[in-house]
Backbone:
């Protein structure tokens, strides 16, 4: 269908209306979207397209043509990108005409009124900054006072002939770089986490610059998938580098697990969800051709790039540590409750989650409540705050455990910040029962299936941040202490 109108600007899709905040304005600008003129000589109509039908009681989108009252004669369908296909947006020409009783400048008011207010976003940022300042003060106190005094005292003891017995975190210098148990699995997680970290950072950076504007539907998902495919090299390199430093020799197993373990779990979950969508006849079901294309990108591009990165990682010499590792492991003394692994891991994820839970509400709204997310500047800032918070919280707990003569920091640092994903999962369950009106078994399975994918990605992402922060911290403090 065509509708008669002549306008200087066109809002593509149902997203751009968010930015019509000034009622008196005659035009607007959105980064990544240039105004399009439809007032060419002899032109008086504009072609309108629709994407899908949604319901607050179901996560299953459907094409407009799936229902009798939306039937159209035209078979014209604009080209779609990968992101639109993944979201089930089959673009069709609209069979409806313009409502002459609604002014053009007011037709999107009902969507604007449903959007969250910007002041809440500022509250989210201020809440996160308070947590970061608190953690930064704690870490600064340790680094500038406690740790500085420890180093000075330890070095002074080495210069005295009748040196007293070592104590505290220096006492475990011969075991702190001992390879962890399950080093193969940890190195694979670090490789996949590095791949996800770079993917998220670059995607959000491009979104802030306007290259991934909400006007370009599906562009965000397309960019994320393409970046993940192209970032196989750093994943293989990091996994191989740390696996070699852990003393591992099964390099073939390491690179194969890096290629297929975490991506395979995500793909298996996604494939099961896709089967359910196929069975329900939803437009969100990925076509078979697209599924084959995704597998081709994975096997033909990502896997070879991972092998290339692993080749260079194993070719380099192992990571040099500032102190030697003793042949016989030191016995760890009995730990108090708060210095044990499990309580520390559980406590370590609280502060990072506190930085993101408000922003997480808006993200879940955009995914499940059919609201459009457009504040990528806020999201990028929260991303940076999350990285800082995970790093500082993990370093803080790592220092306490080293002072208690517990040198098993590798897995604990990964799990401490990675436990934020567990809080994310608990919040997603709370959101499902308190905010959504979803009914039906299929929709419920889809919600929790996709939530598990997001939780796994978040676990690898935050866990990698915590490990690298602690790795830097431990290397730094033991490199400035004199050890016999």
Residues:
């Amino acid at each position: 269908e065509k509708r008669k109108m002549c306008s200087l600007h066109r809002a593509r899709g149902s997203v751009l209306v968010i930015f019509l905040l000034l009622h008196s304005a005659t035009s607007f600008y959105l980064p990544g979207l240039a105004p399009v003129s439809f007032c060419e000589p002899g032109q008086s109509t504009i072609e309108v397209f629709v994407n899908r039908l949604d319901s607050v009681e179901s996560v299953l989108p459907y094409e407009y043509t799936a229902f009798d009252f939306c039937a159209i004669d035209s078979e014209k369908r604009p080209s779609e990108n990968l992101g639109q296909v993944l979201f089930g947006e089959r673009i069709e020409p609209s069979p409806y005409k313009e409502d002459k009783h609604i002014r053009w400048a007011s037709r999107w008011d009902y969507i604007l009124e449903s959007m969250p207010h910007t002041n809440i976003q500022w509250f989210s940022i201020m809440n996160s900054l308070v947590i970061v300042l608190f953690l930064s003060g704690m870490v600064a106190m340790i680094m500038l006072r406690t740790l500085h005094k420890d180093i000075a005292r330890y070095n002074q003891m080495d210069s005295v002939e009748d040196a007293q017995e070592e104590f505290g975190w220096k006492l475990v210098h011969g075991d702190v770089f001992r390879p962890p148990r399950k080093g193969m699995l940890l190195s694979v997680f670090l490789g996949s986490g590095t791949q996800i970290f770079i993917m998220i950072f670059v995607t959000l950076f491009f979104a802030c610059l306007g290259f991934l504007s909400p006007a370009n539907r599906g562009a965000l998902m397309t960019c994320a998938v393409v970046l993940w495919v192209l970032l196989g090299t750093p994943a293989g390199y990091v996994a191989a580098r740390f696996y070699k430093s852990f003393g591992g020799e099964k390099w073939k197993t390491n690179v194969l697990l890096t290629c297929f373990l975490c991506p395979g779990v995500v793909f298996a979950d996604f494939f099961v969800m896709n089967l359910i969508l196929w069975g329900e006849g939803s437009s969100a079901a990925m076509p078979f051709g697209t599924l084959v294309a995704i597998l081709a990108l994975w096997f033909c591009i990502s896997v070879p790039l991972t092998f290339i990165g692993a080749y260079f990682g194993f070719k380099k010499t192992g990571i040099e540590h500032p102190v030697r590792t003793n042949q016989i492991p030191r016995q760890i003394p009995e730990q108090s409750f708060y210095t044990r692994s499990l309580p520390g891991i559980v406590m370590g994820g609280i502060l990072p989650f506190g930085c993101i839970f408000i922003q997480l509400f808006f993200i879940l709204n955009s995914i499940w409540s059919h609201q459009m997310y457009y504040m990528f500047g806020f999201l990028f800032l929260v991303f940076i705050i999350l990285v800082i918070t995970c790093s500082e919280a993990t370093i803080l707990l790592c220092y306490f455990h080293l002072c208690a003569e517990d040198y098993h920091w590798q897995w604990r640092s990964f799990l401490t910040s990675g436990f934020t994903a567990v809080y994310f999962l608990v919040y997603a369950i709370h959101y499902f029962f308190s905010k959504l009106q979803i009914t039906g078994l299929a929709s419920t399975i889809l919600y929790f299936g996709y939530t598990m994918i997001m939780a796994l990605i978040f676990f690898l992402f935050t866990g990698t941040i915590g490990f690298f922060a602690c790795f830097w911290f431990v290397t730094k403090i033991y490199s400035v202490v004199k050890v016999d």
In short: The beta strands are 2-4, 45-47, 49-50, 53-55, 58-62, 92-93. The first helix runs from residue 82 to 86. Residues 2-95 form one domain. The CA atoms of residues 280 and 442 lie 8 Å apart.
